[in-house]
Amino acid sequence: MARKYPRLNFAVILCCIAVLLSLCTIVDAASATSFCKCTCFSNSTIIALDGSKPSTTARSGPLSLARDPKKGSGTCSSCNKKFCLDYNLPICKDATEDDVVTTCFQRDSAKDQAVVLLFIIVTVGLLGYAAVRPWVDKWTETARERRNYIPVSSRSDQ
After folding, report:
1. CA angle centred on 80, ends 95 and 91, rounded to 5°
2. In what order do the strands lie in the sheet with 33-40?
3. Is 71 strand, coil or helix?
4. Cystine design at 44: which of 5, 39, 57, 141 (Cβ 3.0–4.6 Å)?
5. DSSP category for residue 87
6. Buried b / exposed e along 119-135 (16+ C-beta atoms within 10 A)
7. What does the pLDDT average to over 104-130?
8. Of 1-15, 50-64, 114-128, which range is least confident?
9. What is the phi/psi pair of residue 34, to 5°?
10. Cβ(49)–Cβ(87) below 8 Å
11. Where residue 119 falls among pLDDT bands split at 50, 70, 90?
């Protein structure tokens, strides 16, 4: 069975390709924010490795945010025991390398956000197309019938 609307399908595919190509440039340029979690004894501190200054808000408890204005290098390779000890964290005072545990993780990647956004756009687009398709089919069928209609002359002097 031949397809009814090859031009419509081609236009939809072309639009999808254009959207994907435009998102590729955004995704390639974006990188996730890296964090280094330094655990000294039983207390933890999370340090942003993007080079921005950490928050100066003091928090108490086992999980606190670093307040030292030193900057991280931005990569997980710099998140090691020496990095945490050189950061001069108050929770790591009098700690040795045996007392420190480090973990590097990433959050809020622009690539993840782009994938989720693309999924939502494609899903909404397909649902919208499925909802509108019966009316589009009726309209195109009516237009096709009008094209094939040839009026009969009302004159009787033929």
Report:
1. 30
2. 63-65, 43-48, 33-40, 100-107
3. coil
4. 39
5. T
6. eeeeeeeeeeeeeeeee
7. 88
8. 50-64
9. -100, 145
10. no
11. very high
